[in-house]
Write a structure and sequence with these properties.
489 residues; single chain; Uridine Diphospho-n-acetylenolpyruvylglucosamine Reductase, domain 2; 16 helices; binds protoporphyrin IX containing FE; Cytochrome p450; metal-binding; alpha+beta; two-stranded antiparallel ribbon
């Protein structure tokens, strides 16, 4: 039965949800592990929108594509704010676009992003993405055991080259460390409901041994990591302007507006922080899926052999002739939903939906995992099955494309989504064309398959995946020197 709550003073009806306790509300209801699964369970009991109140903060979780579209897209003027995290001021993160409140500064950043990351202009970045995919193939031939480091390296280096025109060949470049650490700090510090200081602001003044104030032990590292990235992007943007380097379109805005270097560098920091880990985590899903599903791997390789042939590596022009590989990319984005609850939006005005009151300042989360694991749309959703996106050997447009869910919604939709999808496609196609991927054997000769244990946090990933890579042809092994040394890739 449905427990609908009435605010005694205003006689308003909040959406239904689990019964909480006095004062703390639903604090103890929020599971720390895979909360998206619990929210889906609750939605079967309470309906698609669930309401919780945690220490006076209103939280709503939307569990269906319809509710998400109705609110985040159709009513985007009201549902595009972000909540005010105390962590933003503790870590001086006002520059980070993902966390920005809905308003003029955010609008200005968003306009710049659209100009330089829209789906037309990103085609200009494809040569860089292709070059980096080939560099990854080369690195995998030489040191397959370091496949995760190499993958992270080429993704970070692609973003850096697109933004600044700076090509880095050193996997130990300090930029990569800044990017990784800053993203990790963001993941730990910004999962709604995970830190008590967001509810009890006085905890910021308490010593770290005080219950609930242990975040203070981690604060200096988070601060140093996020500052490191910001300082790096600021210096790069400034020197690009000063030296008037012939760099990519993205920095051009900076060159014409020196005064705006700070906001340009902030924008770059946001790209790097939001972009490097998300694409990397999607590729971790790919590696795990390939180890577990040799049949899928084989089918993709047959398609690549047919379309690309044995004497070259895949290119973007091949994409439209590779429906199975494209379906495989979609399934990687769906199967493990790396931002399972999206990045929370917040309401900037009171609103009524379906008869329920959603007050101004409510944190609203889209259960992306529930949408992408809805068995009505994706039968047997726990299974990795690219075929679900195909009909008559072509992409079936009737099946919801996971990129339209996993990269968020409405005015806050991920501006890097087209860029990310291209990177993921070219890397997956290049690797599958070049290598057979399998599970390494333990000392008894038994394959070590990934157990698919996920990390917890705002962004999740398969924690432990091990693979071996075997070059599929003499051509690949021979190309490696050429690929590694030459710039003609
Ligand atoms: C598979 C890869 C990616 C995934 C799954 C992803 C997912 C997301 C999600 C869920 C959001 C929040 C959307 C919302 O509030 O509704 C977001 C925002 C954002 N993403 Fe991505 N992203 C990816 C790659 C990238 C890349 C490559 C870049 C930059 C080059 C990027 C830059 C951003 C920025 C700047 C925002 C903030 C937008 C705003 O708050 O207005 N992302 N992303």
């Amino acid at each position: 039965y449905i427990i609908a709550r009435h605010s005694s003073s205003r006689r308003v009806l909040y959406p239904p949800g689990p019964q909480g306790w006095p004062i703390i509300g639903n604090l103890l209801n929020i599971p720390r592990f895979k909360p998206w699964e619990r929210y889906l369970e609750w939605s079967k009991q309470y309906g698609p929108i669930i309401y919780m109140n945690v220490l006076g903060k209103h939280i709503v979780v939307l569990n269906t594509a319809k509710a998400v579209s109705d609110l985040f897209e159709i009513r985007s003027a009201i549902y595009s704010d972000r909540t005010r995290f105390i962590m933003v001021s503790l870590l001086d993160l006002e520059w980070n676009m993902i966390l920005m409140r809905y308003g003029n500064s955010w609008r200005q950043h968003r306009r710049m992003i659209h100009t330089y990351f829209n789906d037309e202009i990103i085609k200009d970045y494809q040569p860089i993405q292709q070059k980096k995919a080939r560099q990854l193939v080369s690195l995998l031939v030489q040191r397959p055991d370091r496949f995760l480091e190499h993958t992270r390296f080429v993704l970070g280096a692609s973003i850096l080259e697109v933004i600044y025109g700076t090509s880095i060949d050193d996997p130990n470049h300090p930029f990569l460390e800044y990017a990784e650490s800053a993203a990790q700090a963001g993941i730990e510090a910004f999962l709604p409901g995970s830190l008590l200081v967001e509810f009890f602001h006085f905890l910021r003044y308490m010593p770290s041994w005080f219950p609930g104030a242990d975040f203070k032990n981690r604060l200096p590292k988070w601060y140093a990591d996020t500052r490191g990235l910001h300082n790096f992007t600021f210096e790069e943007a400034k020197s690009n302007y000063e030296m008037s380097k012939n760099v990519s379109a993205v920095v051009y805005v900076g060159k014409t507006q020196y005064i705006n270097i700070t906001s340009i560098s902030s924008l770059h920091g946001s790209y790097i922080e939001a972009g490097a880990d998300t694409t990397f985590f999607t590729l971790k899903t790919f590696y795990a899926a390939m180890v577990l599903h040799p049949d899928v791997q084989k089918r993709a390789q047959e398609e690549l052999a047919r379309v690309v042939g044995p004497e070259r590596l895949p290119e973007f022009a091949d994409r439209e002739h590779l429906p199975y590989v494209c379906a495989l990319v979609k399934e990687c984005l769906r199967w493990i939903t790396i931002v399972p609850l999206g990045v929370a939006h917040a309401t900037s005005e009171d609103n009524v939906y379906d008869g329920y009151f959603i007050p101004k300042g409510t944190i609203v989360m889209a259960n992306q995992w529930a949408i992408l694991h809805n068995p009505d749309e994706y039968p047997d959703p726990g299974t990795f099955e690219p075929e679900r996106f195909l009909k008559d050997n072509a992409i079936n447009e009737a099946v919801r494309d996971p990129i339209t869910v996993t990269t968020g919604f409405g005015r806050r939709i991920c501006p890097g989504r087209h860029f990310a999808e291209s990177s993921i496609f070219i890397i997956i196609a290049s690797i599958l064309h070049s290598f057979d991927i399998s599970a390494p054997l333990d000392k008894y000769g038994v394959p070590m398959y990934p157990d698919l244990k996920l990390s917890t946090g705002l962004v999740v990933h398969v924690e432990d995946v091990k693979c071996t890579f075997k070059a599929r042809s003499q051509y690949i092994s021979e190309q490696v020197v050429f690929i590694h040394d030459g710039d003609t890739m």
